[in-house]
Structures are given as structure tokens and as C-alpha cells.
Predict the 3D structure of the following.
Amino acid sequence: MKTKGFTLIETMVAITILTLAISGSFISANSSMTAAQISRDKLTASYLAQEGIEYVRMMRDDEYLSAYHDGGINVSTTAWNNFISGSDAASITQCIPTTCTLDPTRSMGSGSGFSLFPCSGSACTPLYLANGIYTQQSGIIGATRTQFTRTIQVTDVSANEKSVISTVLWDFHGTPYSIIITDHLTPWQ
């Protein structure tokens, strides 16, 4: 007996095979998009963490340049002491017992430390993206809240060495991620 056409079972098997082939491609594409988004966030977070380290290093360098400009015999020691526990806002003493956050858009004032300040309460607030700059200020026109939270912490290694820890935390689809960069700072000489 000759049959013309497909039976119902053959059709169902063909549809199942076609569905599996197509859904595999969609799952693979979705996984690739998720991996790309996570990679993008990791890159942004690593830049933000590195910015935190570079900012604290700039504070140390600014103190050295200021002490060098003022003159004196122990320029390096004076600059290091001002950087560690100076009376102006350029010292990091505010971040040694507590966690600080960094906002490069804040007024620099007389010292660069005005942009580095202790977190309010028990946790730092997420960053906002405004005009291509990550900031702590939500009141800037066009600022949008991001998933990134940056913290800066300074710990004592010795009298002439401090460890700076810059951490960026974020959440992607319920999974927490973090980037931690550590650097050790010492006096210039």
C-alpha cells in the first residue's frame, strides 16, 4: 500500500526535532548576551575600582607637591603625615576606621580629599551616572542610578605603609558580583 504524505507521528517527530534545533540556538544566543552583559559590568567595575585607587594615590601625590612647594627639610615626611592624619580634608584618616566612598564630582576645595568621604550609616549608596561620570549625587539633571556601589578603605600595614582597598559591588539578575583592587602606598622617599 502506497501512502502519499506524512503520518501524524512523522509530523510530530519532525516538529520536535525542528523545535529543539531552534530552541538550542535561542538558548545559546541568550547565554551569549548574558555573558556579554556580565563582562561589560565587570569591565566598568574594574575601571571604577581602579579610579578609587588612583584617586587616593593622587591625594598622596598632591600632599607631596604641596609640601615640596612650601619647602622645608623633611618634605616627604611632612607630606606623608599630612596625607595620613592632616587637619585638612586631604587626609585619609577619615577612611581608616570606616569605609569611605568617592565622588569625583564634589567640590575639591583646598584639598582633593573633599571628594573622599565616609559612608553615611552602615552602607555606601549606589553610584549615579550623570553626563558620563559616575557620581554619588542623585540631584544632577539626567542622573540615573546604577547597580554599582564603590567603597574605599585604608588599613595600616606599618607606620610608613598603608593598604588601600577599592571595592565595587553590583548585582546582576540576583547574583552578587564584586571587584576588589588593593594597592600599598608609602612615602615618596
Q: What stands out?
A: Residues 109-113 have pLDDT under 50 and may be disordered. The longest strand covers residues 161-172. Strands lie at 100-102, 116-118, 128-130, 133-135, 144-145, 149-158, 161-172, 175-185. DSSP finds two helices and eight strands in the chain.
